[in-house]
Design goal:
Number of helices: 10
Number of strands: 11
Radius of gyration: 26 Å
Strand content: 15-25%
Protein name: Peptide chain release factor 1
Structural class: alpha+beta
Helix content: 40-55%
Main location: cytoplasm
Order of helices and strands: HHHHHEHEEHEEEEEHEEEHH
Function: Peptide chain release factor 1 directs the termination of translation in response to the peptide chain termination codons UAG and UAA.
Keywords: Cytoplasm, Methylation, Protein biosynthesis
Shape: flat
InterPro entries: PCRF, Pep_chain_release_fac_I, Pep_chain_release_fac_I_sf, Prokaryotic/Mito_RF, RF-1
């Protein structure tokens, strides 16, 4: 292991041991606020600590094996030590790789829930139908992860699917899994209305926002927004509520428009819409920060076919993520096995960050 990394890990181990000691001190134990703060800081480095302890144990066993190989006369013991040394070396290599990943700066939003928006883009009715297919794919994926989906707002396409659908996803570290889904998704298939059997290309845009909690202060002044109420509508625009319970909020400074119509009351819809608005404003702040540090990276794109991050090719039963050149069976992914792509994207992202960090 590289010396700088080893030294950093020793410092983290010392910090963890110190936190453990502090938590047993009466003045900390009896101060709930202080106790919780120290316990949180300890928890934040717990994975690193336990993996480094395992590394140190393997390192000690490896050293003992090397000592036996160098000084022992018994051939059987030497043979056993050589086998164990190889095993301990493999354990150390695996733990070192894992520790490199754990040492990477964590995305501050990885633990958050998600607000996702899917819109039909290029391709008219077929794009809207594809938006509906993407929503079903995410529904099935969320079932495999025990994530909970709740629709906030939706506009049905005239031929099926959605021209727009907004929904929340709640669960364990949802954003860490789904943040790579943002961008333009392209579909290639023969539409049901196509009489000549020609393959059409359409797109849908996916936006993924971290759902912010009270720990992030985003101020929305009453004078900065315009609130409209209207009746909720279902498929084909038909009214599904006899009262004006749906809420539309327009943020005057940015032009962001947010709608919520799937809650049971106007008050609840307004609360949901404000929460989404705050998440979008928070995302604008993150974009501004990224723009200043790395250059702007758009979160969804315009929907142009050339911007695609992924292609869903139905005739060939193939899905390809163009960012990492990963291809697999389309049917399997649409049936909910999206983890195959997500895991590959996460692994690629970690590898790039490790290289950039020089670990």
């Amino acid at each position: 292991m590289e010396k700088t990394m080893y030294s950093s890990l020793l410092s983290i181990k010392e910090k963890y041991d110190n936190y453990t000691k502090q938590l047993n001190e009466p003045n900390v134990f009896n101060d709930i606020k202080k106790y919780n703060q120290i316990n949180k800081e300890k928890s934040d480095i717990e994975d690193i600590y336990h993996n480094f302890i395992a590394y140190l144990q393997a390192e000690e066993s490896y050293s003992l094996d090397k000592d036996i190989i160098s000084n022992e006369q018994d051939e059987e013991l030497i043979s056993l030590a050589k086998d164990d040394a190889l095993n301990q070396e493999q354990i150390m290599n695996n733990l070192e790789q894992k520790l490199k990943e754990l040492l990477l700066p964590q995305d501050e939003n990885d633990k958050r829930n998600v607000i996702m928006e899917i819109r039909g883009a290029a391709g008219g009715d077929e794009a809207n139908i594809f938006s509906g297919d993407l929503f079903k794919m995410y529904q099935k994926y969320c079932e495999t992860q025990d994530f909970k989906i709740k629709i906030v707002d939706s506009t049905y396409g005239s031929a099926g699917g959605y021209s727009q659908i907004v929904f929340t996803i709640k669960g364990e570290k949802v954003f860490s899994k789904l943040k790579f889904e943002r961008g333009v998704h392209r579909v290639q298939r023969v539409p049901a209305t196509e009489t000549q059997g020609r393959v059409h290309t359409s797109t849908a845009t996916v936006t993924v926002l971290p759902e912010i909690d009270d720990d992030i202060k985003i101020e929305v002044k009453p004078e900065d927004i315009e609130v409209d109420v209207f009746r909720s509508s279902g498929a084909g625009g038909q009214s599904v509520n006899t009262t004006d319970s749906a809420v539309r909020i327009t943020h005057k400074k940015t032009g962001i428009i947010v709608t919520s119509q799937d809650e049971r009351s106007q008050i609840m819809n307004k609360e949901t819409a404000l929460k989404i608005l705050k998440s979008k404003l928070y995302q604008l702040e993150l974009e501004k920060r990224e723009s200043e540090e790395h250059g702007l990276r758009k979160l969804a794109g315009t929907g142009d076919r050339s911007e695609k991050i992924r292609t869903y090719n139905y005739p060939q039963d193939r899905i390809t993520d163009h960012r990492i050149g990963f291809s697999t069976s389309l049917k399997v992914i649409m049936d909910g096995e999206l983890s195959k792509i997500i895991d590959a994207l996460i692994a690629d992202d970690k590898a790039k960050k490790i290289t950039e960090a020089g670990l």
